[in-house]
TrEMBL record:
Natural source organism: Leptothoe kymatousa TAU-MAC 1615
Domain of life of the organism encoding this protein: Bacteria
Recorded topology in the membrane: Multi-pass membrane protein
Classification via Pfam families: ABC-3
Protein name: Metal ABC transporter permease
InterPro entries (UniProt xref): ABC_BtuC-like, ABC_TroCD
Protein family membership: Belongs to the ABC-3 integral membrane protein family.
Length: 290
């Protein structure tokens, strides 16, 4: 058993992948907790695909692909917010429009811009955590520390805005600033996750640990702590399963996170399906005449 745990740790790429996976588990849980409470899950889905529009431009200009993805993601999110708030178009329709349009922009630019076809779209879509560098690990650590620090400093304001946006606006809080800040935080997290799980699976990494914690605890700060543990465990267990089963790392991590959700859905002390069924069964037995 000990050899089974130690053997992958002797490989440098596994060490980097595990460090990055733990950091992403924490980062995604912190940002994802606000995202779940704000019902922004589909927004993250739209942003994760919209970032593709910025990749070919960044490649041609000669800047980091992640910077181009960040700009495209923020623009798509702000466009979505503008359409939703300034027109009769519903959120789901606006999301579908923005998602498909930005993906179309990315695919078109890759085809027509000279040299842009060198971008590995499969890597963008599915990620490759085994190929991360220490530079990406340090970048992820910096983003995680900044995110946790900002969330801690503005926790009370964000808590008020998250659960009572109308009350926050009536009290004079800059709600548009907080909304834009959460969108930017979500976009940065998505961009950081792209090398790991790719655009297709990044939403699951953001949602699964946070929504699992949502079934287990009641308070927002508890969601962050529990979600961070679940996210980190999902990354570590998923990496080990990927190593020994020779399976795709990103998909394996997401499937492990989904298994944690299924366990919480069935056995959560307050929300679990089987637990609720057992309680109803016991109450019915106790109420039966002897």
């Amino acid at each position: 058993m000990l050899d089974w745990i130690i053997q992958p740790l002797s490989l440098t790429f596994m060490q980097r992948a595990l460090m990055l996976g733990i950091l992403l588990g924490i980062l995604c849980a912190v940002v994802g907790s606000y995202m779940i409470v704000q019902q922004m899950g589909m927004l993250a889905h739209a942003i994760s695909h919209s970032v593709m529009a910025g990749l070919p431009i960044a490649y041609v200009v000669g800047i980091a692909l992640s910077f181009g993805a960040l700009i495209a993601g923020v623009i798509s999110a702000l466009m979505l917010y503008l359409i939703e708030s300034r027109s009769r178009v519903k959120t789901d329709a606006a999301m579908a429009l923005i998602l498909t349009s930005f993906v179309a922009i990315g695919v078109t630019l890759v085809s027509i811009i000279p040299g842009a076809n060198r971008i590995d779209l499969l890597h963008v879509l599915f990620g490759n955590i085994l190929g991360v560098t220490m530079k990406e690990v340090w970048w992820t650590l910096a983003v995680t520390v900044v995110a946790i620090t900002l969330m801690r400093l503005f926790f009370k304001e964000l808590l008020f805005y998250t659960f009572d946006p109308k009350g926050a606006q009536a009290s004079g809080m800059p709600v548009h600033f907080y909304n834009a800040s959460l969108i930017i935080a979500m976009t940065v997290t998505i961009v950081v996750c792209l090398p790991t799980v790719g655009a297709l699976l990044v939403v699951a990494l953001l949602v699964a640990p946070a929504v699992t914690a949502y079934l287990l605890v009641k308070e927002l700060h508890q969601m962050m702590w529990v979600g961070s543990i679940i996210g980190s465990l999902s990354s570590v267990i998923g990496m080990y399963l990927s190593y020994y089963l020779d399976a795709p790392s990103g998909a394996t991590i997401v499937l492990v996170a989904f298994c944690f959700f299924c366990l919480a859905f069935l056995f959560s002390p307050s929300e679990g399906l089987l637990v609720s069924f057992w309680r109803k069964h016991m109450r019915s037995r106790l109420s039966m005449p002897s």
